Structure formats: C-alpha cells, structure tokens
Amino acid sequence: MERQAEGVVRSPSETVREAQRLLDAGMPFHAHEVFEDAWKSGPEAAAPLWRGLAQLAVGLTHAARGNAVGGARLLRRGAAGIEELDGGPYGIDVPGLVRWARELAGRVADDGAPAVDPVREAPRLAGGGLE
C-alpha cells in the first residue's frame, strides 16, 4: 500500500474523517501520517491532541506487526498525551480513546504479542472510543 501524501493540510473534521477511514480499513500507519500532518500544520494549541493520536495509531501499527513492547509503549504514551485535554476537541472521544489504548496495551503486553488484527482493534475516534 502506498504511503499517504505528506504535508496535506486538512481541517480538523477532515483529519478525523480521513484517519477514521484509514483505521477502519486496517491502515493505522497511514492514519498516523494523517494525524502527523495535522500536528505539524495546525495550531500549536492542538498539537498535543494530534501528536497523541498519532502515537495511538502507530502503537496500533506496532501491535498489528507483532511488536508487543513497542505497541504497548506507544499506546500508553499516546493515552497519557491526550488524557488531560479538556473535553473532546473536534468531537473526538478522548476518554474512550484513552480507555481503548490502555486496554489494548495491557492485552498486547500481557499476551506476549501475537499480532492483533488492526481492523478488529480499530478505535472509534468520535463518540464511542471502543466501538
């Protein structure tokens, strides 16, 4: 699969929509690149959100590739990076994503990392986190 085009400037809603499409398609690394674009091109105040979401997506990438240690570490780092954000910016279900990331990190780390299915494990970014 081709990499996402880099440096694409999207609105926050376009970022969430495109990242969700990629997560649902089992392409968490591509979703990571979408979040990274938002992090680097958006307002500085939003950078912690996009950086944390990028870490969650790349954590899922590592978990899907069987890298339990790296996957769990990035999932936990991403969760820690977004958990203190006020409310749910841009409709993003921050509390649900934090729960999802910590649950998946614990499961991956505890199981000794058989690779996870990125489609089955894809989080819901808005309004439900764990769906």
Structural overview:
The protein is an all-alpha fold. 60% of the residues lie in helices and 0% in strands. The protein contains five helices and no strands. It has helices at residues 12-24, 28-41, 47-64, 68-82, 94-111. The longest helix has 18 residues, at 47-64.
Any descriptors?
5 helices; 131 residues; globular; 60% helix; mainly alpha; single chain
- Residue-averaged pLDDT, rounded? 89
Radius of gyration: 13 Å
- Beta-strand residue fraction: under 5%
Helical content, roughly?
55-70%
Layout of secondary structure:
Blueprint: H1 12-24, H2 28-41, H3 47-64, H4 68-82, H5 94-111
Helix pairs in contact: 1-2, 2-3, 3-4, 4-5
Quick summary of this structure?
This protein has 131 residues and is mainly alpha-helical. The chain is built from 5 helices and no strands.
